Amino acid sequence: MNISIIGATGYSGVELIRLLVKHPEANIVAVYSNSQAGKTMQEVYPHLTHIFTDSLTKIDCGRIRKEADAVFIATPSGISGQLVPQLLDGKLKVIDVSGDFRLATPELYNKWYGKQTAAQEYLDQAVYGLSEWNADAIRGTKLLANPGCYPTATLLSLLPLLKEDLIDGTSIIVDAKSGVTGAGRSASLGTHFCEVNESISAYKVAKHQHTPEIEQTLNHLTGKEVLVSFTPHLVPMNRGILTTSYATLKEGVTNEQVAAAFSEAYEGKPFVRLRPGAYPKTKEVYGSNYCDIAWHVDDRTGRVIVLAVIDNVVKGAAGQAVQNMNLMFGLPETTGLEFTPVYP
Ligand SMILES: NC(=O)C1=CN([C@@H]2O[C@H](COP(=O)(O)OP(=O)(O)OC[C@H]3O[C@@H](n4cnc5c(N)ncnc54)[C@H](OP(=O)(O)O)[C@@H]3O)[C@@H](O)[C@H]2O)C=CC1
Ligand SMILES: CC(=O)N[C@@H](CCC(=O)OP(=O)(O)O)C(=O)O
């Protein structure tokens, strides 16, 4: 497969390169950048010396349509909404890592992102790429909306319980922590070393753009009513997300029923590792496409607490995007993704 990458100079883009240079069926034919066109990838990222040295060029949708079988878009929100209408033509498959095609309507997107995205007719063509839950639809689409990093860990934690009607969907609270790569490579005051190091803080409380994505997907995939309080935190590490999700169990639900719901949902799913009763660390999935999930039933409060860890740039972005590409091209979903986590 001939692959193009738009936004190759960002953290998600360079992670796509790391995964795709070793993918047995993929051949990166072009990498695109707005601000760094003309430079080679190794100038921008010296760790790619002798590994991937192609030059970056200005975005050219006509060229992409002609020479690529698939294009990954890893740009900030508000960009792919403009690009996709110029790309959806012929055989080309589009995988958007940004949030532009995840929400159901342009109005909902505008409300939470404060920007414009593509028209409704394009949003209607997008399939939400939560690989473990939507594989059939993913296989048949030409426009894939790759999930957000926080929603990936949260949805994998809660969908089995909501589907089996074990929890009250309106009682959900998600407390989430992310490493700083989640905010992208561009310098900003909020991600400056001195601001982040030896500190932890919440941000975008009650207004984070992943809240409607989580609610919408829980509702679409289970038909249940949901209301989610979602609070993200920034922690001083490079990669990793830990989500702690709380929900009230329905009357009489047992630990065995909770365990059975998880086992059934993730039987045969290679990238979800169930670890009941454990305390998973972000370090234990670092650099890999795994999502590790643990749960604890609190009989005293009647709540279940689900812990999930992912690497935000792998399962939370580039890794899941490649997993979805595999599904879209009829390949085994693990192709090119069987990395052991880097530990310690
Ligand atoms: N980082 C993460 O953990 C995750 C990120 N995402 C999403 O993936 C997308 C990319 O994120 P991330 O890699 O962190 O971001 P970065 O800020 O690290 O990179 C952004 C990329 O977009 C390009 N870009 C910026 N502005 C424009 C523009 N106006 N037109 C075209 N290209 C542009 C930049 O290229 P250049 O400056 O060279 O032109 C750069 O390659 C975002 O939408 C993000 O929300 C999703 C899940 C997880
Ligand atoms: C640590 C950090 O800042 N993380 C980002 C996650 C970005 C992301 O994935 O947002 P999209 O919906 O635009 O893809 C954030 O909270 O906004």
TrEMBL record:
Which biological pathway? Amino-acid biosynthesis; L-arginine biosynthesis; N(2)-acetyl-L-ornithine from L-glutamate: step 3/4
The family database entries (SUPFAM superfamilies) matched by this protein are listed as: Glyceraldehyde-3-phosphate dehydrogenase-like, C-terminal domain, NAD(P)-binding Rossmann-fold domains
For this protein, what reaction is catalysed?
N-acetyl-L-glutamate 5-semialdehyde + phosphate + NADP(+) = N-acetyl-L-glutamyl 5-phosphate + NADPH + H(+)
Q: Tell me where in this chain the Semialdehyde dehydrogenase NAD-binding domain is found.
A: 2-141
Matching entries from CDD domains are given as: AGPR_1_C (cd23934), AGPR_1_N (cd17895)
Q: Which InterPro entries match?
A: AGPR, AGPR_AS, AGPR_dimerisation_dom, AGPR_type-1, NAD(P)-bd_dom_sf, Semialdehyde_DH_NAD-bd
What is this enzyme's EC?
A: 1.2.1.38
Q: Where is the protein found, in the record's own terms?
A: Cytoplasm
Q: Where in the sequence is the active site? A: C149
Any one GO molecular-function label of the UniProt entry: N-acetyl-gamma-glutamyl-phosphate reductase activity
Broad enzyme group: oxidoreductase
Give the record's keywords alphabetically: Amino-acid biosynthesis, Arginine biosynthesis, Cytoplasm, NADP, Oxidoreductase
Q: Which family does it belong to?
A: Belongs to the NAGSA dehydrogenase family. Type 1 subfamily.
Please explain the role this protein plays, according to its UniProt record.
Answer: Catalyzes the NADPH-dependent reduction of N-acetyl-5-glutamyl phosphate to yield N-acetyl-L-glutamate 5-semialdehyde.
Protein name stated in the entry: N-acetyl-gamma-glutamyl-phosphate reductase
Q: State the organism named in the record.
A: Aneurinibacillus thermoaerophilus
- The gene is argC
